[in-house]
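Reply to thread "Modeling small-molecule complexes from scratch"

Following up on the discussion above, here's a worked example others can learn from. I took a protein sequence and the SMILES for magnesium ion and predicted the complex. Inputs first:
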Amino acid sequence: MPAAGSGLYVGLMSGTSLDGIDAVLVDFSSGTPRLAASHHVPFADPVRAEALALCAPGADEIDRAARLSNALAQLYAEAVAATLARAGVPAAEVEAIGCHGQTVRHRPDAGYSVQLVNAALLAELAGVRVVADFRSRDLAAGGQGAPLVPAFHAAVFRDAREHRVVVNLGGIANVTDLPPLGTVRGFDTGPANILLDAWAARHLGEPFDRAGRWAASGSADEPLLCEMLADPYFAARPPKSTGRERFDLAWLERHGVATRRPQDVQATLAELTARTVAEAIARECPGAAAVCVCGGGARNDDLMARLARLAAPVKVTSTAALGVDPEWVEAMAFAWLARQALLGRPGNLPEATGARGPRVLGAIYPA
Ligand SMILES: Nc1ncnc2c1ncn2[C@@H]1O[C@H](COP(=O)(O)OP(=O)(O)O)[C@@H](O)[C@H]1O
Ligand SMILES: [Mg+2]
C-alpha cells in the first residue's frame, strides 16, 4: 500500500515529438506542487521508428501495438526507477504514477484517441499504482480528449492580477488562456516541433534543429507561408486539437517544398509555428499581458525570438520566470492528473476540451 498522504506522485510524459520520456517526481504535500526529481530517457532509434510507424496505418498493427505497449512499459518503469533513485525515495512512498502513454492516433471526430502503454505491466514492474488512459473519458463525454494540461496550468500559473497565457511548444503547440477573472480555456494551435523535426531529420540527419540555428540561417518564404496558413485548422475556432494525422511530412510535401532551399523551408516552418501561436493568442486571448512558454520549443532560440517579435507588445518568457522549469511542466501535469483521479476530482476543463462537463479522468491499475 502506498504511504497514506505522502503527497508524492510520478508523472510520465512522452509526447508527439517522439523525443523520449520525461519523468518527474512531484511533491504535493505543501500547497504548491514541488518538483522533487526529474529524468529524461531518450527513445532508442528502433522504438522511435516503431512508434512513428504506428502513427500511420500499416500491416500487422495489433501485434505491433501490443509489443510496443510492453516495450514502453519497460522503458517507463526504468524512467520511474531512475527518477526515484535520484530523489532517494522508495517506490512504496509514491502514491501513484500518472502515465500519458504514447499517442499513435488522435481522432476526436471519430470519438477516440489511442495512447500506447501496457499500464498493468508498468504497475507490476514499478510496484506503484498507475493511472493511465486519461483522454478516453473526456472523449466519452463529447470532448476532444485534449488538451488536458490547461487545468494544471491554471492550478500553478494563474495569477490574480496578470493575464497570462501558457504556450506549450511540444510536437504540437497548445495554449492555455489564464485571465485573472473569467474562464480558463485551452486548445491546440497546430504544429510546433513535429514539422521542424521532420525537416531537420531529412536534411541534417539530426533529430532536431538545435537552438533553431539552421532555421535562423534561412529566410521565411512568404508565399509558402501563406499557402500553409490557408490550412483550415488554423482559422477554426476552439475547442480543437490535432496531431500527426494532419501535420506530417505528407502535409509539408503537398506545399511544394521540394523546390525551395531546405533552410528557407525550415525558417518558414518556424515562422508558421510562431505566427499561428501569436495569431491564436491575439484572437482567442484578448487582454493577455504575458506569454509563458514551456516544452522543448522553449530551448529553440530562433523560435522564441520569432514568437517574441510577433506577440509584442505582449512579453514572452519561459515558465522558468514563474519558477517552473519549462522542460518538466507537461510531465508534472500528468502527476497532477493522477492525483486528481485518486482524489476523485475532475482533470479536464470542459471549456478546453468541449466535453459536456467536468470528468474524473483515467483508469487506475493498483500496485
Ligand atoms: N536545444 C534545443 N533546440 C531546439 N529544439 C529543441 C531543443 N531541445 C528540444 N527541442 C525541441 O523540443 C522537442 C521536444 O519537446 P517536448 O516538449 O518534449 O515535446 P513532446 O511533448 O511532443 O515530446 C524536440 O523534438 C525538439 O524539437
Ligand atoms: Mg517529449
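What I'd highlight from this example: DSSP finds 14 helices and 13 strands in the chain. The chain has two domains: 8-145+328-365, 150-326. Questions welcome below.
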